[in-house]
Amino acid sequence: ILSEYRGRASVIGGGSQMLPRMFRNELSADCVVDIKKLGLRGIEKRGDLLWVGARTTYGDILSSSLANTDAPLLSLVSKGITGGNQIVRTATIVGSACLNFPSSDMPGVLVGLNASLIIHGVKGEREIDAADFFLGAERVAMEAGDFVTGFLVPKVTDVGYCKLKHATSSWPIATACALRSESGELTISLGGVNEVPICFNIDDPLQLDAAITQRLKSPWEDVLASGEYRRSIAPVAARRAISDMKDYSK
């Protein structure tokens, strides 16, 4: 069906973004495809990786002991999703990823976690790294006939997260993930400040400002904040994420 409509169809997961945009005439579609009967809701181990289905909500993450132990960053983010309980119980992580609105939590989180998105299309199934999935503001690496069935993340337990925003009900202006691997490597992933997440490893946190300045050439701007403001607070968010790091396996 998606291939037949070639870009004129929308897939509905939770609908928390798609339906309001349709009501505001910001989005139109000739066909809406509901993937509910395909299942794709749940969290399970697949080898050394954690699989999260396309219809899995933030609430599902919060109630999953497996997510809390193997991917605590997902739980941290799910607790603070803008919109309260109604959104937490309805919105899906994959839906947020596929929309790729720069001022949202999940793109930066998935890139930081080194997630792989599983895409089903007319030619079968393929995996793509999150860093390659996000192409630009509201643009992702999918073709006509493609939809995401879920994603895979490796186990990372030493994490921190920071989200800066104007008010409880507003979109983030900047987000930052800090993750430390078992080998001690520190990874920073920034969201909200660029069209696509900025992710890098850093040996010396004292070089954080310089590392961000080097990578953040054209910061994202919208009605919430200018690009220059986002550029100035990106290091602040990163430092707070580092200071809030905790090993959730202990």
Please tell me about this protein's structure:
By secondary structure, the protein is an alpha+beta fold. The protein has helices at 2-5, 18-23, 58-62, 65-70, 72-79, 84-88, 93-99, 106-112, 130-133, 208-215, 227-243; strands at residues 9-12, 31-34, 43-46, 49-53, 116-121, 124-129, 134-136, 139-140, 147-154, 158-165, 172-180, 186-191, 198-202, 246-247. The chain has a 5-stranded antiparallel beta sheet with strand order 3-4-9-5-6. The chain has a 5-stranded antiparallel beta sheet with strand order 13-12-11-10-14, with helices on both faces. Strand 5 (116-121) and strand 6 (124-129) form a beta hairpin. The protein is globular and about 50 Å long. The model has no long low-confidence stretch (mean pLDDT 92).
Mean pLDDT: 92
The count of helical stretches stands at 11
Task: Describe the strand arrangement of the main beta sheet, using strand numbers.
Answer: 3-4-9-5-6
Q: Biggest sheet, open or closed, and with what strands and sense?
A: 5 strands, antiparallel
Cα-atom radius of gyration: 17 Å
Poorly predicted runs are none
Q: What general outline do the C-alpha atoms trace?
A: globular
